[in-house]
Write a structure and sequence with these properties.
Length: about 130
């Protein structure tokens, strides 16, 4: 996809996508279980289970998560997330992303063209 047709990303999303990754679950891979990490992780494959981190989770274009997600920041770059999301800082979902579940976060951005089925609850930013 060329830069001209991509959805503009926020500064946080651009930094998370371009920054140093601590781990990558690439296309064609599948992980089942509980994923915990520090820093930044990108998922382009499948994950079934739970995700816990104070860091940043980036969900790639073809990723599929069937998981309970509790993170510092979640950035969905076009993949699918099925499960409830709790983010201490922010959740950003970019088209053609799909989220099926409830979102609880201090900041929420949902791009035009995103499919979101669930409830959204805004909370004060976690000072920690």
């Amino acid at each position: 996809m060329s830069d001209e047709t991509e959805t503009p990303l926020s500064d946080r999303a651009r930094t998370a996508s371009a920054g140093e990754l601590n781990a990558l679950l690439g296309r064609g891979t599948r992980f089942e279980g509980k994923l915990t990490f520090e820093g930044r992780v990108r998922i382009d494959g499948e994950l079934v289970g739970e995700v816990f981190t104070d860091g940043v989770l980036v969900v790639g274009d073809e990723a599929v998560l069937e998981a309970s997600v509790e993170v510092g920041t979640l950035i969905v770059r076009g993949g699918t997330v099925r499960g409830d999301i709790v983010a201490r800082a922010a959740v950003e979902v970019y088209a053609p992303g799909r989220v099926y579940g409830n979102i609880t976060a201090a900041e929420v951005f949902i791009d035009k063209g995103v499919l979101f089925e669930g409830a959204c609850k805004m909370v004060e930013r976690d000072p920690g």
